[in-house]
């Protein structure tokens, strides 16, 4: 089992609450306050989990500047009060930032009993 430091445990909690508030804010018709709290908690939790320096290095790599601009711009747009436009910008930036992790996540999900059998269906599975 992976051992976590206390700050990483706090970061996991903050990130989890951030995702919860983002999800809940979208369910409640893009509630500005919940989305803003979710954004702040998510970014703070990420900084706690991987560390402040590694967070800055991740977001501000030269080839990820466009993605970072969309993601942080979306956070800013949500904070100033335009939640739907902000969430669209955030989602686009999120996919650009984390697109390298998606194959790893899909590979992990394929090993889960029920979800793996669904992802291995012929019309879902990518052609070899």
From TrEMBL:
Tagged with keyword Transmembrane helix: yes
InterPro entries: Got1, Vesicle_transpt_Got1/SFT2
Cellular compartment(s): Golgi apparatus membrane
Pfam families (UniProt xref): Got1
Membrane topology: Multi-pass membrane protein
TM spans (from-to): 12-30, 36-56, 68-85
GO biological process terms, semicolon-separated: endoplasmic reticulum to Golgi vesicle-mediated transport; retrograde transport, endosome to Golgi
Coiled-coil ranges from the UniProt annotation: none
Keyword annotations from UniProtKB, A to Z: Golgi apparatus, Membrane, Transmembrane, Transmembrane helix
Keyword check for Transmembrane helix: yes
UniProt GO cellular component terms: cytosol; endoplasmic reticulum; Golgi membrane
Summary of the function given for this chain in its UniProt record: May be involved in fusion of ER-derived transport vesicles with the Golgi complex.
Annotated protein name in UniProt: Vesicle transport protein GOT1B
